[in-house]
């Protein structure tokens, strides 16, 4: 049925859906911990510094262990397939390539430009820092296919060096950035912007549903919203900086009690980031927050709690006058004698010195999120 929908879209330019199915995977920290290697804590906010026509389509994403969510795209002619992380916290598209000989590259699928008749090379190099790692590469142009939609001449990065351990254990072969073009390294045009410029989308927006509890069904939809993935109304809030998907938070409450952390600074800022598996809190609130939860920090920088306790507080984010709740079952994971809090500190403020949050997958599993480029706003609704 899905292939039939794509075929109809290609032939009659009707109301087909661009759905990208997503998978989910354990975090780098969890994978390395299982191997007996404990990574030091790294502030996730560090990464914030440095023609077939269709109307809309949904791409399923894979989900394993409620952390990284990734799906399939194809690059080149004939197409070479890659699993990529759909990341609203960055703007570049890159994949592993045969130009790279580090273990992180050779242990994943590698793009071979010599096997693509549509590849165009450039001499422009790049360096991309992320919260947990970095890589170098070279830019080129090629055809990218996303759930049956073909985008010709798309700018794409090919890795030439992926040092360290970070990308060795990841289940994906590259990253597809979904943030604004202003932060694209090398001045490259993000894939979503190319689709918008060519009129490939029914609406200039995309939406993300992240499943939880190990369930399948995660997806990113381009050009519309999937009404089957949320309930109630979508609540909108304006983007405060057209860089990342950054929004304002009026207040933050613990167990129904306002903390004043945002109001005393005239508000907080938050970056909504599908590429961060946790919630990251401003360092000004961490001590009070962890004390309220009853968490203790271990030698690896993780905040741990007693799994046998159950009276943990609900966290509330007030955004454009609407309260969004994150319960203890959302932010505490683990079993038996080891449970940890999926909230970490960030020490970097927003540009206006307001406290900075990162609302990662812990938040986004609770709320269906809609990223509206046409109106520069972000919407949340209760996920099904």
How much of the sequence is in beta strands? Answer: 35-45%
Give the proportion of residues in helices: 10-25%
CATH level-1 class of the largest domain: Mainly Beta
Main sheet, how many strands, which sense, barrel?
Answer: 7 strands, antiparallel
Euclidean distance between termini CA atoms: 23 Å
Low-pLDDT residue intervals, each spanning 5 or more residues:
1-16, 35-40, 50-55
Question: CATH homologous superfamily of the largest domain - what is it?
Answer: Acid Proteases
The structural domain count equals: 2
Protein structure class: mainly beta
Provide a concise account of the structure shown.
12% of the residues lie in helices and 41% in strands. By secondary structure, it is mainly β.
Which helices and strands appear, and what pairs or packs with what?
Elements: H1 2-12, E1 18-21, E2 23-25, H2 28-34, E3 57-60, E4 62-63, E5 68-75, E6 80-87, E7 93-95, H3 103-106, E8 120-130, E9 133-146, E10 149-161, E11 174-177, H4 191-197, E12 205-209, E13 219-222, E14 230-238, E15 241-242, E16 245-249, E17 251-254, E18 257-258, E19 268-272, E20 279-282, H5 283-293, E21 296-297, E22 303-305, E23 315-319, E24 322-326, H6 328-331, E25 332-335, E26 338-341, E27 343-346, E28 356-359, H7 361-364, E29 367-372, E30 377-383
Parallel strand pairs: 6-11, 7-10, 19-28, 20-27
Antiparallel strand pairs: 1-13, 2-5, 3-13, 4-5, 5-6, 5-9, 7-11, 8-9, 9-10, 12-13, 12-29, 14-30, 15-16, 16-19, 17-18, 17-23, 20-28, 21-22, 22-26, 23-24, 25-26, 29-30
């Amino acid at each position: 049925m899905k292939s039939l929908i794509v075929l109809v879209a290609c032939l009659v330019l009707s109301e087909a859906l661009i759905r990208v199915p997503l998978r989910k995977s354990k975090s780098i920290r969890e994978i390395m911990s299982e191997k007996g290697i404990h990574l030091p804590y790294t502030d996730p906010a560090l990464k914030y510094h440095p023609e077939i026509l269709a109307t809309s389509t949904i791409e399923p994403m894979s989900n394993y262990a409620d952390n990284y969510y990734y799906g399939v795209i194809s690059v080149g002619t004939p197409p070479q397939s890659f699993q990529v992380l759909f990341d609203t916290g960055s703007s570049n598209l890159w994949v592993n390539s045969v130009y790279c000989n580090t273990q992180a590259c050779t242990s994943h699928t590698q793009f071979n430009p010599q096997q693509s008749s549509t590849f165009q090379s450039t001499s422009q190099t790049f360096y991309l820092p992320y919260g947990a790692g970095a890589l170098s590469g070279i830019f080129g142009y090629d055809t990218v296919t996303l759930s049956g939609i073909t985008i010709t001449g798309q700018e794409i990065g090919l890795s030439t060096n992926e040092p360290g351990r970070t990308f060795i254990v990841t289940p994906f072969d590259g990253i597809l950035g979904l943030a604004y073009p202003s932060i694209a390294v090398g001045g490259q045009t993000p894939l979503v912007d190319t689709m918008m410029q060519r009129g490939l989308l029914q609406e200039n927006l995309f939406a993300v549903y992240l499943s939880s509890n190990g369930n399948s069904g995660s997806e990113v939809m381009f050009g519309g919203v999937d009404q089957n993935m949320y309930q109630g109304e979508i609540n909108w809030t304006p983007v405060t900086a057209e860089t990342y998907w950054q929004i304002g938070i009026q207040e933050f409450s613990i167990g129904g009690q306002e903390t004043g952390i945002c109001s005393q600074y005239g508000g907080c800022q938050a970056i909504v980031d599908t590429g961060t598996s946790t919630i990251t809190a401003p360092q000004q609130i961490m001590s009070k927050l962890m004390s309220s939860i009853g968490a203790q920090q271990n030698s690896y920088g993780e905040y741990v709690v007693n799994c046998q306790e159950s009276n943990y507080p609900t966290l509330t984010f007030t955004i454009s006058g609407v309260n969004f709740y994150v319960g203890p079952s959302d932010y505490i994971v683990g079993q038996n004698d080891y449970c940890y809090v999926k909230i970490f500190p960030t020490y970097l403020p927003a540009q206006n010195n307001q406290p900075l949050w990162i609302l990662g997958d812990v938040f986004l599993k609770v709320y269906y999120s809609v990223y509206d480029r046409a109106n520069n706003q972000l919407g949340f609704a209760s996920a099904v």
